[in-house]
TrEMBL record:
<dbReference type="GO" id="GO:0005975">
    <property type="term" value="P:carbohydrate metabolic process"/>
</dbReference>
<dbReference type="GO" id="GO:0016020">
    <property type="term" value="C:membrane"/>
</dbReference>
<keyword id="KW-0256">Endoplasmic reticulum</keyword>
<feature type="active site">
    <location>
        <position position="416"/>
    </location>
</feature>
<feature type="region of interest" description="Disordered">
    <location>
        <begin position="570"/>
        <end position="590"/>
    </location>
</feature>
<dbReference type="InterPro" id="IPR001382">
    <property type="entry name" value="Glyco_hydro_47"/>
</dbReference>
<feature type="active site">
    <location>
        <position position="288"/>
    </location>
</feature>
<dbReference type="GO" id="GO:0005509">
    <property type="term" value="F:calcium ion binding"/>
</dbReference>
<feature type="active site" description="Proton donor">
    <location>
        <position position="144"/>
    </location>
</feature>
<dbReference type="GO" id="GO:1900103">
    <property type="term" value="P:positive regulation of endoplasmic reticulum unfolded protein response"/>
</dbReference>
<dbReference type="GO" id="GO:0106055">
    <property type="term" value="C:mannosyl-oligosaccharide 1,2-alpha-mannosidase complex"/>
</dbReference>
<dbReference type="GO" id="GO:1904380">
    <property type="term" value="P:endoplasmic reticulum mannose trimming"/>
</dbReference>
<dbReference type="GO" id="GO:0044322">
    <property type="term" value="C:endoplasmic reticulum quality control compartment"/>
</dbReference>
<dbReference type="GO" id="GO:0097466">
    <property type="term" value="P:ubiquitin-dependent glycoprotein ERAD pathway"/>
</dbReference>
<keyword id="KW-0732">Signal</keyword>
<dbReference type="InterPro" id="IPR012341">
    <property type="entry name" value="6hp_glycosidase-like_sf"/>
</dbReference>
<feature type="signal peptide">
    <location>
        <begin position="1"/>
        <end position="20"/>
    </location>
</feature>
Length: 812
């Protein structure tokens, strides 16, 4: 099973590389042009070194002005510490345990950058910092401490002990990092000793539950309940003590068992009772790393159970939450749209989709985050995509206007956008993503660099900087950026399955480690063994309730709504680029990277003839480039502080540089309206995806969410075609309609028809039919009749919604 996952990694890059080499070999005269456009190794080195310098700048400052405290404030140049006065200040204290977290979390970035001397020095410093291990009187969040401290230490331990790695420490290293990781895990693990086996969110590192109030542990989110599984299972492999793996795996199983019948997980629960707190589901904050670790755990631990969880969860997301440009938050019991905003954290999802093999959709979703970045200069913590008619006429926008669609306004330099950019580059090798990386790098150099380090925006609507350098800036943001440019990094050529933790700590298992674990693992800690046994006993008692899930077959759950109403007519100029923007003038005063090259070439020569392969293949064929701007133009308004910034933009200048004229075209925005229906039928939906991308369906059974497009003559459909009045000729005939419709006269000359365009998140090809095979789907004539009465069917076998035919939904 796991092969399918791994193939994506292996196949795509090889294909891309091969085609580039082909051009290089055969056409020397064009090679240099090629290099200019798609980043040669000198440029890559330049950018890589720049990232490294930025990292060292902030890291050194932390060591001098922040250490031994948890963080350094990049503007004030003083430590940011735990709030010692107010132990109940959870926002601060959840992460800052007074355990030098920046020091620990940034360690593997040094390893990734192959900086052996500094890595060795920091390992030593960590040994000296924690002579009593983590015997500290701090109440901290289990999830945050696991991913930053335990994960950071384990990954660094892997580097230190793997002779194939450049920072391998050999004899001088005696396993101190692993001992520290184990010590921390032992202090966190009691959080699982609840009635349900689900962890509480917080624990005191010295006295366990002692000073903790009931309120502070009565709610835990799904991401936090399952996530330690990845780090803790790694710890089991390394220590042979399987209690870490088993306790967290039980919690993963248990959490997944709390899903709704739509296979969606509500975002938070009471870990003591298993009762649901927040019934919405999505891919952002509170639930993100549940998906991440289901898939990543499946790969790293070769675990089919986790793979099944990922597949079921992802399928359900695609059915219920997938929109064109993002995943929305939905009600976990009904699948209904619940919020009109998305989280900054959800920007990680395209990276995960790449890992799962869904590169095509990842490209789309990543584009939206790019748009947010270009508009606000960062990715606001929350963006409200509701179209605001009130702004249509406005010319000037105040920060308050902009706040109306940025309900959470900060951007703490989170890594998720860089992470997805990195994964997409690895999968496509398209220079477009390197270019995105350069834009991010430039922002880091110019807007986010302060006296002592990096800080994001306190408020993207005003540009006010944030005087905080969260540890993920050094451990993730800069690491992924470095890896993007470091195409030959040892992680990219290893034979082990390297998987990044949610905090970007690389993890891998060699066959030797796996064998050793399988043969010698033990679980003799009676506290946890008894606890799991008791949990399982309670599970068996309540198993009766588990089977009460009833089938909702035959019912048509209609919650049709105009979700995707196009908010404007397409502009006349539909076949070329978007509205012309003033040309960007290259900044002549800036030293060029080409100056560092060791061969003289006139790079300033204009490129009149642009061969196809100079360009971003992706952008050349991406025909929905401007759809985001048009669809969301009232919530993508640049705040003042961004107006003079020239961000990397999908504008004309950018587009001309990166896309080939011959292939580049922008599909017009659909002007049709859309609505969604949910069909709950007996049986299963069997879809086969053909190699050409089209969908072949055997029969339409089970629960299906279908997007219908209202097609009206003269409008532009979702395939970018003007709808031909001819389509309606046959519809004018009387036999299109069922007899019950005959009574309503006006329906004889319909002004609209319906067509299904999206099935369970999958875009259907323009001429696809969805067929219900009644013999397979309906068991009795009565079932079939009930359904027919609900829907109606005309003599072309087309189903009908309120007497209007759905021209590509057939019942045969
Ligand atoms: C916090 O850490 C610092 C530096 O290690 C130490 O001096 C101080 O005693 C610690 N404070 C508390 C309350 O643990
Ligand atoms: C979790 O569920 C899987 C089945 O998917 C099962 O094989 C495994 O033993 C369970 N693990 C624990 C610790 O309960
Ligand atoms: C548990 O088992 C391991 C390996 O067999 C052994 O080294 C260890 O001493 C045992 N611990 C206890 C508490 O029995
Ligand atoms: C959005 O686009 C429409 C149509 O082009 C235009 O009338 C409107 O002013 C735009 N709104 C904003 C806020 O730019
Ligand atoms: C879809 O159904 C229509 C009407 O039955 C038929 O003409 C058309 O060829 C079908 N399309 C495909 C792709 O099978």
């Amino acid at each position: 099973m796991l092969y399918t996952l791994i193939w994506v990694w292996v196949l795509l890059p090889i294909w891309a590389q091969a085609s580039q080499e082909h051009f290089n070999r055969n056409d020397n005269s064009k090679q240099l042009q090629f290099e200019k456009y798609s980043f040669n190794r000198f440029e890559l080195k330049h950018y890589r070194e720049t990232v490294k310098d930025l990292f060292h700048f902030a890291h050194e400052n932390y060591l001098q002005k922040g250490y031994p405290y948890d963080e350094l404030r990049p503007i004030a140049c003083i430590p940011k510490t735990r709030n010692f006065e107010d132990p109940d200040d959870e926002i601060t204290n959840d992460v800052l345990g007074n355990f030098s977290v920046t020091l620990v979390d940034s360690l593997t970035t040094l390893a990734v950058m192959n900086d052996r001397p500094k890595f060795a020095e920091m390992v030593k410093l960590i040994e000296d910092t924690f002579p009593n291990k983590f015997n500290i009187d701090s109440t901290v969040q289990v999830f945050e401490t696991t991913i930053r401290i335990v994960g950071g230490l384990i990954s660094a331990h892997l580097y230190a002990t793997d002779p194939s790695k450049k920072v391998y420490l050999g004899e001088e290293y005696k396993g101190s990092l692993l001992q520290l990781a184990k010590d921390m895990a032992d202090r966190l693990l009691p959080s699982y000793l609840t009635l349900t086996g689900l962890p509480v969110p917080r624990i005191n590192l010295r006295s366990k539950f002692d000073p903790i109030s009931v309120e502070s542990v009565s709610e835990n989110n799904v991401a936090a309940m399952v996530s330690p599984i990845f780090e803790f299972t790694m710890l089991s492999y390394l220590t042979l003590d399987s209690k870490y793996a088993d306790v967290t795996r039980y919690a993963m199983n248990k959490t997944w068992a709390l899903r709704t019948e739509l296979q969606l997980l509500p975002m938070s629960f009471n870990p003591q009772s298993g009762q649901c707190y927040t019934p919405i589901s999505g891919v952002g904050a509170s639930i993100d790393s549940f998906y991440e670790y289901a898939l990543k755990g499946a790969i790293l631990f070769d675990d089919d159970g986790l793979l099944k969880i990922w597949q079921d969860a992802y399928n359900s997301l695609n059915t219920n939450s997938r929109a064109d440009w993002f995943y929305t938050n939905v009600q976990s019991t009904t699948g209904q749209l619940q919020t009109l905003w998305i989280d900054s954290l959800s920007a990680f999802f395209p990276g995960l989709q790449v890992l799962a093999g869904d590169v095509e959709d990842a490209i789309l979703k990543h584009m939206l985050t790019l748009k947010l970045w270009n508009t606000f200069g960062g990715v606001p913590e929350r963006w409200d995509f509701q179209t605001l008619a009130a702004f249509e006429k406005k010319k000037e926008f105040t920060p308050e206007d902009i706040k109306s669609f940025v309900p959470l306004e900060w951007y703490p330099l989170r890594p998720e956008f860089v992470e997805s950019t990195y994964f997409l580059y690895r999968a496509t090798r398209d220079p477009f993503y390197l270019n995105v990386g350069v834009a991010i790098l430039e922002s880091l150099q110019t807007r986010f660099k302060h006296e002592c380090g990096f800080g994001g925006f306190q408020d993207v609507t005003t540009g006010e900087p944030q005087d905080r350098m969260e540890t993920f800036i050094l451990s993730e943001t800069l690491k992924y950026l470095y890896l993007l440019f470091d195409v030959d990094n040892e992680l990219h050529s290893t034979r082990d399955n390297v998987v990044f933790s949610t905090e970007a700590h690389p993890m891998w298992l060699t066959p030797k480690m796996i064998n050793n674990y399988e043969q010698n693992k033990y679980f003799n800690d009676t506290v946890y063994r008894e606890h799991l046994r008791a949990c399982r006993k309670r599970d068996r008692k309540s198993a009766l309730h588990e089977n009460e899930r009833t089938f909702m077959g035959g019912k048509l759950l209609r919650f049709a709504k105009s979700l995707f109403t196009a908010d404007q007519e397409p502009t006349k100029d539909i076949s070329t680029h978007a509205q012309p923007e003033p040309e960007e003038q290259p900044d002549a005063s800036k030293p060029s990277v080409y100056e560092q090259m060791c061969f003289p070439v006139d790079f300033a020569a204009p490129h009149t003839d642009k061969p196809q392969w100079l360009h971003s293949h992706l952008l050349s064929h991406f025909d929905r480039l401007f759809e985001i701007d048009r669809r969301y133009n009232s919530t993508l308004i640049r705040p003042k502080h961004m107006q003079n910034v020239v961000p990397m933009e999908l504008q004309r200048g950018f587009y001309e540089k990166w896309a080939h004229d011959k292939f580049a075209h922008s599909r017009p925005m659909p002007s049709t309206e859309a609505l969604e229906i949910v069909l709950d039928l007996p049986g299963e939906c069997q879809l086969i995806r053909l190699p050409d991308g089209s969908i072949h369906r055997e029969t339409l059974g089970g629960r299906n969410k279908i997007r219908l497009e209202k097609i009206e003559p003269g409008k532009i459909d979702v395939y970018g075609r003007i709808l031909d009045p001819q389509l309606f000729v046959s519809a004018r005939c009387k036999d299109v309609f069922k007899s019950t419709c005959d009574k309503i006269d006006r329906l004889y000359t319909p002004s609209l028809l319906y067509r299904a365009t999206v099935l369970n998140g999958i875009n259907l090809p323009a001429d696809a039919n969805l067929t219900i095979n009644r013999k397979t789907v309906f068991k009795t004539q009565r079932e079939e009749n009930t359904f027919r009465d609900l829907f109606g069917q005309n003599s072309y076998n087309q189903l009908m919604l309120e007497c209007t035919p759905i021209i590509n939904m057939l019942m045969q």
